[in-house]
């Protein structure tokens, strides 16, 4: 997984009742864009250090915009 500051991290829920989490990547702490990432979560405005696992996707700002338009 590779990302850059300004990209978005979307984490799909693993259970039926889980919701998607969406946050903007503020800092990339791994080499060459790899995790962990400092993420500012949309729903809470809090920042956490995240090492994404299965069910996580990196989106550029343009990809996120396109996803919301469909």
Q: Please, could you describe this protein's structure?
A:
- With 70 residues, the chain is mainly β.
- The protein has one domain.
- Helix content is 13%, strand content 36%.
- The protein has one helix spanning 61-69; strands spanning 8-11, 21-28, 37-41, 47-50, 56-59.
- A hairpin with an 8-residue loop joins strand 2 (21-28) and strand 3.
- The protein is globular and about 35 Å long.
Short description:
Helix content is 13%, strand content 36%. With 70 residues, the protein is mainly beta.
Key structural traits:
five-stranded antiparallel beta sheet; 5 strands
Provide the number of structural domains. Answer: 1
Our count of helices gives 1
Give the termini distance in whole angstroms.
Answer: 25 Å
Shape: globular
Helix content: 10-25%
Radius of gyration: 12 Å
Q: State mean pLDDT (0 to 100 scale).
A: 89
Structural topology:
Elements lengths: L7 E4 L9 E8 L8 E5 L5 E4 L5 E4 L1 H9 L1
Antiparallel strand pairs: 1-2, 1-5, 2-3, 3-4
């Amino acid at each position: 997984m590779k990302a850059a500051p300004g990209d978005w991290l979307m984490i799909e829920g693993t259970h039926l009742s889980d919701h998607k989490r969406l946050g903007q990547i503020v800092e990339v702490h791994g080499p060459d864009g790899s995790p962990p990432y400092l993420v500012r979560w949309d729903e809470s405005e809090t920042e956490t250090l995240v090492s994404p696992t299965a069910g996580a996707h990196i989106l550029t700002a343009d990809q996120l915009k396109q996803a919301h338009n469909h």
